[in-house]
Amino acid sequence: MKILETERLILRTLVQDDFDEVCKLLQDSEVMYAYEGPFSDQEVQEWLDKQFRRYRHDGFGLWGVVEKSSNELIGQCGITYQEFDGKQIAEVGYLFRKEFWHKGFATEAAIACREYAFHALGFNEVYSIIRDTNIASQKVAQRNGMEKVATFVKHYRGVDMPHFVYKKK
What we know:
single chain; 4 helices; Aminopeptidase
């Protein structure tokens, strides 16, 4: 189901048939460095199942990003609830296949999701939580009008990872 459309992209719900395409994203060690490495097939399925639960429970989640010109699934972008400072916040998150990096797709999708969060979902503020070493994603957050408001450490896969919190009101 199509959720959003931009000049070059369609954001739609992910479906089980996307498994192989999602593997191209989540099993790439360069793409997944901020997650301490690529996912196994089981972890990819768990990731998909988590999005399906979000769609049912929250009415949103990470959506598949399809490039219109090729009709290819090039990444994921969307809105998810994340825990920060003792509360649930709306996060604009994004993850793209490396061959589509540095082409403006992440920024285009993130801006569309920010606007959707404000205008369709009624949020007053949105966040992006980004690992401190992920400079490219930090730049996307800044181009999405966000400012860095906090730093905290996330413990994931046995590693303490500093993260920056960006926010847009």
